[in-house]
Amino acid sequence: MSINGLEQTLFFSVGGLPIIVLWLLLGAIFFTLRMGFINVRAFKHAINITLGRYDSPDEPGEVSHFQAIATALSATVGLGNIAGVAIAIQLGGPGAVVWMTLAGFLGMSTKFVECTLAQQYRTIRVDGTIAGGPMYYLSQGLAKQGFKSMGRILAMSFALLCALGAVGGGNMFQASQTQAAVTHVLPVVREYTWVYGLGLSTVVGLVIVGGIRRIGAVAGTIVPTMVGVYILASIWVVLTNLSDIPGAVVLITQEAFNPQTVAGGMVGVLVQGIRRGFFSNSAGNGSAAIAHAATRTQEPAREGIVASLEPFIDTVVICNITALVCIVTGAYQRAPQSALGFELVATAFETSVPGFSVLLTFAVCLFAFSTIVSWAYYGEQCWRYLTGDRFVLTYRLLYVGFTFVGTVTQPSTVLALSDMMLFAIAIPNLIGCIWLSSDVARSLEDYWQRLTSGKMPIHGVKL
Fold first, then answer.
1. Which class would CATH give 17-451?
2. For helices 211-240 and 320-328, what crossing angle results, to 10°?
3. b/e sequence 300-316, b meaning 16+ C-beta within 10 Å
4. Which of 70, 95, 88, 56 lies closest to 298, judged by CA?
5. pTM of the predicted model, to two decimals?
6. 382-421 b/e with 16+ CB inside 10 Å = b?
7. Distance between CA 120 and CA 433 in Å, rounded?
8. Which of 5, 122, 166, 233 could form a disulfide with 170 if both were Cys (CB 3.0 to 4.6 A apart)?
């Protein structure tokens, strides 16, 4: 079955607009308005927090603000930013970039709400580790308002779907993309995929056994490196095609509102852009809240503000630069129909700078590896919630095993599974977030009043 066929099968739609995409979009619009455009007014403050201006080692938690955002970014940067963007352009045309950017902008508010709630309802286990995320704020938050049974059902649904989604979208698809990337440069790997799979699985296992502290440390190193390498390479390609930038911008704008070659017309472009935008930054599915719950802070709203940067970095910056590379080089038109995800972007790089595919392969492997280890943590936390902290080793072994399986799985099949699971967890998560949004608004109001009045202690120099 083709990707289009799988999409139609897995995503029920009304008038061509999938219900789950509409659900994510409406939720993001609601949070943006309810929180007074927090994605705009707190942007500068979010940067200051990330730089450590408000960090205190005496606050409870396991990782710093920077490590938390690095872990969350490592789980999203990769899956949608290279392969996903290329697919959006293939299926929705250049105009999908506009709607992808809109999804990133609105998703900043959704991330704020999710991660503020994660801090408000996190739990410290007897061994000192932090447990938090949608399964906790759904169960505890709704119970606090007198809806204990409903909260429990939503929490269990989220945990089950996330544990499964981690194996599919966060693990197998990433493993598949790394295998495709390496094979693109070293065709001989195609003959020994099992060797590559064993190697990747072993390294993943060595990292995830250390829990969030080791994952946070690894992500804090890998994420800045991989983002820097990829952006520099992309800028080089764009600069070599500088004269084509104005035409690309005009094409993107025209195709966003008046598509000429896309099946489904305007709706098709809008759906592909918004769908891939939310898929790239995971705003609405609640996964990032699991990482941000472990941050050292006593200010829930502060962590939510930090988290709001993720969709901006992930979608507004990285996705857009990927799209420009594909468009200014014309690769999205010249690449064969069979080229999926990484292969399309690789074609774009090779068109401008022969040999750049090696550098791109390195970046893709870092993107994918960091995503795999971060989703291992997300899935494990959900597994522990479902089983009462039992059989943790079993889940880790299964997760590592599916890393191997992903290297020999057809990308189109894994992509469909990824979309299904990672979008499905947004249903229980957003129900709870909307239900508890008044709690978040009160927390934000109190925090913002203390911040603007100068009562907030600062460590270091504020920008």
1. mainly alpha
2. 30
3. bbbbbbbbbbbbbbbbb
4. 56
5. 0.83
6. bbbbbeeeeeeeebbeebbebbbbbbebebbbbbbbbbbb
7. 12
8. 166
DSSP structure class, residue 295: B
CA distance 379 to 392: 10
HSE of 235, CA atoms in CB hemisphere, 13 A: 7
Name the percent of the chain in helix, strand, coil, to the closest 5: 75, 0, 20
Q: Report the chain (463 residues): mean pLDDT per 10 consecutive residues.
A: 42 62 90 94 88 66 64 61 74 81 91 93 80 91 92 93 82 79 75 81 80 64 73 83 85 76 58 72 85 82 88 85 84 62 73 70 77 85 87 88 80 60 84 94 93 71 51
Nearest-angstrom CA–CA distance, 299 and 277: 29
Question: Which residue's entry shows tokens 């197998």?
Answer: 172
Q: What is the DSSP string of 94-162?
A: TTHHHHHHHHHHHHHHHHHHHHHHHHHT-EE-TTS-EE-SHHHHHHHHHHHTT-HHHHHHHHHHHHHHH
Task: Give me the helix-helix angle, 173-185 and 356-387, nearest 10°.
Answer: 160
CA dihedral (178, 179, 180, 185) positive or negative? positive
| Residue in the structure block whose two tokens are 């289009």 | 4
Residue 32 CA, chain-centre distance (Å), reads: 19
Alpha-carbon gap, residue 297 to 47, rounded angstroms: 16
